[in-house]
Write a structure and sequence with these properties.
Layout: H1 9-37, H2 41-52, E1 57-59, H3 60-67, H4 71-83, E2 87-91, E3 99-103, H5 105-125, H6 132-148
Antiparallel strand pairs: 1-3, 2-3
Helix pairs in contact: 1-5, 2-5, 3-4
Length: 154
């Protein structure tokens, strides 16, 4: 491996800013969800794609891919959410090894109750800090970065 190509001052400033925003935004939004809706960030993360899925059902494996989590993390989180009545686990009719995760009525009610305040917090703390021109630049820039990152599969 060759010599490291260190970040210059501008690059380091942008990188530190990105890390800081990610860490602090995650903490702010997590506190807001717990305080306003009694949901953890992890619960909200899984409730969103389930609430958008046809019939509120996804394969556990697909849910994990959608949120970028490993199988064990999905399994543990779904178990916790089952105990709270937010989701139900079902056998997969197509594959006996797979399982389906179904949004319950309580889970749907929780996401419906939590989403407006969550979106308002995202708007207040992130979107509202940027001009329209900055949004037009940062959106495509972040998409390019995401496109360059490897999937969990490699």
């Amino acid at each position: 491996m060759g010599e490291a190509r260190w970040l210059d001052e501008r690059e380091a400033r942008v990188w530190r800013g990105m890390i800081g925003v990610l860490q602090r935004m995650t903490a702010v939004l997590e506190r807001q969800l717990v305080q306003d809706a009694g949901l953890s960030g992890a619960e909200y993360t899984l409730l969103v794609p389930l609430s958008e899925a046809p019939d509120g059902v996804l394969r556990a494996r697909d849910l994990g891919r959608m949120v970028g989590w490993e199988r064990s993390r999905i399994s543990h989180q779904v178990t916790r959410m089952e105990k709270r009545g937010l989701v139900a686990r079902e056998e997969c009719s197509e594959d006996a090894r797979g399982s389906m995760v179904r949004l319950t009525d309580a889970g749907r009610a929780a996401i419906v109750a939590a989403a407006p305040a969550h979106v308002a917090a995202v708007r207040r703390h992130f979107i509202g800090a940027l001009t329209d021109a900055e949004l037009d630049v940062i959106g495509p820039a972040l998409e390019r970065v995401l496109d360059r990152l490897p999937d969990d599969d490699g």
